[in-house]
Amino acid sequence: MRKEYGALVVGAGISGIRAALDLAVSGHKVALVDRRPHHGGLLAQLDHQFPSDNCGMCKMLPLMARDSSSQYCLRKGLYHDNIDIWLNTELTGLEGDPGQFQASLTRRSTLVDPARCISCGECAAVCPVQVPNEFNAGLSERGAVYLPVPHAIPNHYVVDLEHCTRCWKCFEACPTGAIDFKLDQRDGFRVLAVTPDSTEAQELLSLLDKAGFPAVFALDQEKALDLLADGDPAGLLLVDMSMGEGVVERIINRAAELRPELPVVLLAGAGESDAAARFVDPEESPAGGGPRGAREWIAKPLEEAVFIPWLDKLHVRLASDEHLVFDVGAVILAGGFDCHDPGPVDDVLGYGRYPGVVTALEFERMLSSSGPTGGRLVRADGKPVRRIAWIQCVGSRDLQKGAGWCSSICCMFSVKEALLAKKALGDEVEATIFFMDMRTFGKDFQRYRERAENEEGVRFVRARPHSVITDWQGGLNVGWFGDDGRQHEDGFDMVVLAVGARPPKGVDKLARAAGVELNEHGFVATRPLAPARTSRHGVFAAGAFAAPRDIAESVIMAGAAAQGAARMIKIHDVLAGMQREEEPEYPDVSREEPRVLVAVCSSCPTLEQRLDLDRLFDRLERLHSVVSVARVGSACTAEGWGEVERLAREEKPNRILIGACMPYAYVPRLKELGRTVGLNPALMDVVDIYTPTFPGEEGPDAAGRREREVYAALATAVARLEGADPVPPPVTVNVARAALVVGGGVAGMTAAVAVADHGYEVCLVEKEEELGGMCMRLYSTLEGGDPRKHMEDLITQVEKHPNITVFKDSRVVLSQGTAGRFRTAMYTPRGALRFEHGVTILASGGRESKVYDYGFKVHKSVMTQLRLEEALATGTLDVSELQRVVMIQCWRSRDEERNYCSRVCCSQALKNILALKARNPGLEIVVFYRDMMAYGFKEAFYTQARRAGALFVRYEPERKPKVGFDGGKPVVTGLDPVLGREVQVRADLLVLSSGVEPAETDELVEIFGVETNRDGFFQEAESKWRPVDFLKQGIYLCGLAHSPMDMAEAIASAQAAAQRALRILNAETIARETVVAQVRHSLCSLCQRCVTACPYGARQVDLEHGRIVVDEILCQGCGSCAAVCPNSATVLTGYHDGPVMALIDAALEEPRHVETPKEREQ
Amino acid sequence: MNGNRNDPAAELREYMAACMQCGTCSASCPNAEFMDVSPRRLWRLAQLDRMDDVLASRTFWMCSSCYSCMLRCPRGLPTTRAMQALKRLAAQQGAAGARRGQAFCRAFTENVERYGRVQEGALMNTYLRRRANPALALSYVPLGWKLLRRGKLHLLPGSGHKGRLAPLVNKVREMEARS
Predict the structure, then answer these.
(1) Cα dist. A824→A486, A765, A809, A879, A1009 in Å?
(2) pTM
């Protein structure tokens, strides 16, 4: 199959979804593929995210043109007009150049036809196989035919062929014939075997005969090739390796010419397996790139018990799997990560050996209500859990386990899990977290940790437990070494291993297929100052595939990757996405009496077997608005749908209700139906009537309950349709297709260029006289980037860009309007200016904090890290003269005044240490620190700095190091917790890590009506799912104004913000959504509760007219206002009190006994 | 031991530079309670270049080379080897406490060299004689009695393995002389 897309996104986890949505909402067609049978990646398994401790993934759903996308839980399903999701699909090759890639993919069939599967579960009930269920991290079991995630919509069973025992019971049990093992095609699957040995041929023949496949034999290559040349319809070529490598190679090559799609399998005897393996995977051969062409190889002698199942499965695969070719403009790799496996069983932590030792993922599955224990926290042996320990850095920061990196996420998820445990089990649960450094480097992480420690009573112990030992009662003893110089031991009921991130399994294969390089840690290599770019032009990396990252950062990186891909698509003018269709005008039926047509799909036998349809129809017909109830066959097929259309034309209803399975599948069809019969799709609905009829509880009431449920589903839908509001003519805003960027630092400039490259006008306002901001003070980065050159190039690019106008020494004074059309006044050296723009990006940046103590600004020997970097780069500091340098981290940050981690200082210190050590290896460096925030791959540089001889001395905030001066030279005294003694260091230089502060934002907050957090950084709409959006639509944030971040992260956030902004700019008009709130002014008492309740800032008081005004573009139809309104003055379209009450009545209606026509006859 | 021969302290520092003071070694050590300075503190002292304090401690003499620490060190540092290096260094430099610390090691080596296996009676005899401390000898009496009763202590040397390990020990001596 060949298809065209703007972009291909590999991996449908959180980053893949974010990147795909970002591209889809700005009008590009996207193929989203995942090798797993479900979307959502790891997050499909996780119910709780901090800081809110719930999920919230739905906040990523499009805010505009909401009808084009699914609007329910994103973990359950994703549907968007512009996104095609291909599951069980893997990228196998990528040819061509950016803008015109040809991606080859293999789609492994699930062997269940999703159009037919009604998810009744009959197949799983008969499956004899029991294997660990991946979804529950192996804590429960599943069959070989199973639901990959229990909550997905649509949710179809899939067959796991690897574990299938070929009993075909599910095939027989399926009531709809959805499972297809291609058993009817076996006769046509002819095996052509080439073997020189006639006895072997005889044996093979009898095996094939038993398996039931026709076969033809050739004793030599000529015969075989002649057969193929004559058009033999063989479906498989078996080649015996005993003919010699040369002959085998000839056969394979010639067969590839004659029948390119014919699969070849090699039969390898003893000693021939290496050669056979080289034919299968040329990379296996020592020289690389050997002969290729075989699908796989099997060992001789062939055993019946192995060969027949293998051949059966091979046949099913060959007959069912698909090869896909996509023409795409750009590729985004979002392969995610795997969790470290803390096995083997004899490991010191006792995972897999002691009940009660679990991984963090298993722990979260236990807490989930869809998990193996239904949300109860119990040990595998049933013992209650009261004392829980978390052990950090399991498989991270551990060179012995091959992980020289920090996994970045475990500290925070452990704190979250500790709080969840407290919530689940109550306060009597004791939670202890064992850690080495608590890496709370993200926005608001430090406060979250402190809340856990001080308010919730989570115990934090700084130690690395060496092992877990069980006692005779099954308790778990954890031993560690304390700061007091003693060994300690404590007993727990459960030990949670905070397992780290690993590159996903098969990353090397994917990297090879996509033609990108991996870094030394095995993750995808990206460029130091272009964090979304891989080694191959046009191929981008998103999320944790390039480095361990949490959700917020993955979402930002996905935005950056989407921006890169969008730029590729724009440059190469790849297939413009969907053609925006004219919204058809529908007749206004609001004045007509509701006439509902009910069509019930009765194609699947389960319905009629378990339900009295006649009685149901009879009852439905009695509803006053129902004009006709009809039975249609297979609404899911074109004929069935044609039937619905015919009925609609005949009956001329003004509401249509369809009872079928899987309502979500009908959304696009309803639109089409509306167009053909001239009825607004908002007046149509599809409800699920099949689920209540699935096998489940039996009993005397079961039938009655089933009937009640189906009737209630249909009756509520009728009530809803009756009360549906007429849709008023759409309100649209003509978009001013230009952007205002405030701040000319690296983030502002990157965002400006990203928007301007799409052909939109950009106005960049910088308050200083020069562009560049903080990054101008950087001379190198830890990862080896060249910030100077990057900034020089960027400034030139910005200043010369035809679409960018730069105003230096200028400021914004006023801004009005809403998303799509803002009017802003600026004060510039050229005088006051006005600018109309559709979006605003705030990148006002930050600065190095200045705290005047420790002799800073008094003694020349005291400087900040940035100043040291400058002195090192410009050569004003003679390093060879120095004997000893002291650095103090967290100088006045992570303390009450500025209680957040500045994130960049630890890497800045490491960078300076390595620079100092490179010039003067004998130089002594002592670093006083609290927690080294060497997250991700920065950990490797921390190791490098220690190897180079730098000494790291930890201090507690209660006992900060003291600084005195002796002859102008600093003398630093601090307590070394390891020695338990004071150490005094006389240094030539004292370097302070002073941290990052946001720039003054008071004015911007007022002008743009945005908010800041308590530390003065801008407050994003949602810290995880919408990290670069403000709540107010059309305004975005990036760079240091968001939170402390390094240069590469600032660049990524700017690209992500630009991509979000492009969504508005790419549209000529923005239409109001169908569900918005309105105010009935006659009832409104102007109490203004709704104004504060509105999370989107869509409400204002119009003092002149004395009324509440709703900005219908900003309104997202959440209904918060309607809920708080004491007078019911605020209403939500389609959710007026009356219809909602009617709907509830219909749902709860006790059915009266109605005589069926049959009964009447009797 | 290879590396910087001129400055044994530098060699030790090089071994332990990448240590991040997690304490796994000290927590794992079965003999930690007999050590005056914990292994973690020992590495710290070495990093701080306080070799006098390092050599004065009896920590490394208490190391029984069980390799638990080395196996568990997340940084993969050669902790046990560093302990052994310290023993050699202390012996070479004749550091305070070295004589005492060495006494058992030497007695043990001589014992197995001679008898080909441990001959408990002769071993304790040599060791206690060298330490020349009657109080120490007396303190072993209860343990000795217990072992004797259980047949774990052989007072008279057996002859089956005599001299078997001598070539091995000679080889070590040869190697030590060469380097």
Answers:
(1) 65, 11, 17, 51, 13
(2) 0.89
